[in-house]
Amino acid sequence: MTQLPPVALSVGADYESVASRFRPIFDRIAAGAVERDQLRTLPYDQIAQLKQAGFGALRVPVSQGGAGVSVKQLFRLLIELGAADSNLPQALRGHFAFVEDVVNAPASAERDQWFARFVRGDLFGNAWTEVGNVALGSVNTQVAKQGDRWVLNGEKYYSTGSIFADWIDVYAQRAEDGSDVIVAVATKQPGVTLSDDWDGFGQRTTGSGTTVFKDAVVEPGHIVDFARRFKYQTAFYQLFHLATLAGIARAAELDAAAQVRARKRIYSHGNAPHVSQDVQIQQVVGEIAAWAYAAEAIALRAAEPAQRAYEARFADDVEAEKHFNIEAEIESAKGQIVATELALRASTHLFDALGASAIGGGKALDRHWRNARAVSSHNPIVYKAKLVGDWSINQKEPIYVWQIGAGPGAEPAPT
């Protein structure tokens, strides 16, 4: 790894200066969140606003035209965005993962070209997972040489954010030798078909549907061996879930407080002439606020090792880099175990501060629980707890790349 001068790395910026650029957009996003959830309207305009404001270039170094924020600062901003609409951090998850891979790459003309695209506003989507009868560890999507060009063929699901994107980060295999690769595919071509067929009850507008590649043209330089991928990638992906959960908890707090302030009706057996002065209701909202605070604190703490791993990589400190890669995995797993419970608890408890009118569909307060449940279902918490326990007991190094697929089947029951 070639060492780069500090100015060429993304080690942090003035947070308030950066955040102030986006908060007016966050406010506009929040204003339409309920309607988008109710109508299942994809946030094309909202993502376009973020794109135009340079949100996608947050991790690009200042020397390359980006904001140069640290990993922790990125996720702090994503928590703010998640409080406005938790669908958007998840929709941008694939983009920032690809950016992070480029940020970790050695200096080169290809890397600088990607930086220029990010600064210009280009966004990435994600297409890694295949459903159906795909064996664990296998992938059917393949890139192959066809005449004088490379083409990609296959079908992916959970293609989060791809429907909004200019490019898609695709996990595939080379047809010639079966080696695992990452392929950057331009979306605006006949060989790419994007469908909004995600039918989950939560996170409805993340654009997480099916993507079909049929002889989609790929530039040779946009096919990269998977082994080169940045090592803390799994932790980085999981930090998005943490930030989204923290954003949901904060949104639950904001909605609970606003609904209590506006409420006119009281119960005969309550404690005050106005519900905002009822000490029991104040306690409920206070507990939600504390859980939201804890979820955010956990998410930001869990983001720190990833930044250290990134910096160690460019310091040519192999031992430190490995240490922080492990720490990033363990801390992101620990964080999700707890933040999941906090977000689900906050999004349920808010109804204890309100009356039956709070369950009206027009308020869509149930979306916080639905969204938290959807986010926390992507990667089972039980396996995270196992990973953390194995590390605590046995110092077993975590698996850095997770896969899902059809298993060989259970043994038949004894007769």
TrEMBL record:
Residue intervals of the Acyl-CoA dehydrogenase/oxidase N-terminal domain: 28-122
Xref: InterPro entries: Acyl-CoA_DH_C (IPR013107), Acyl-CoA_Oxase/DH_mid-dom (IPR006091), Acyl-CoA_Oxase/DH_mid-dom_sf (IPR046373), AcylCo_DH-like_C (IPR036250), AcylCoA_DH/ox_N (IPR013786), AcylCoA_DH/ox_N_sf (IPR037069), AcylCoA_DH/oxidase_NM_dom_sf (IPR009100)
Annotated EC: 1.14.14.21
A Pfam family that the UniProt record links to this protein: Acyl-CoA_dh_M
Catalytic activity: dibenzothiophene 5-oxide + FMNH2 + O2 = dibenzothiophene 5,5-dioxide + FMN + H2O + H(+); dibenzothiophene + FMNH2 + O2 = dibenzothiophene 5-oxide + FMN + H2O + H(+); dibenzothiophene + 2 FMNH2 + 2 O2 = dibenzothiophene 5,5-dioxide + 2 FMN + 2 H2O + 2 H(+)
GO biological process: L-leucine catabolic process
Pathway(s) per entry: Sulfur metabolism; dibenzothiophene degradation
Residues in coiled coil: none
Subcellular location, principal: cytoplasm
Keyword annotations of the record: Flavoprotein, FMN, Monooxygenase, Nucleotide-binding, Oxidoreductase
Assigned protein family: Belongs to the DszC flavin monooxygenase family.
This protein's name: Dibenzothiophene monooxygenase
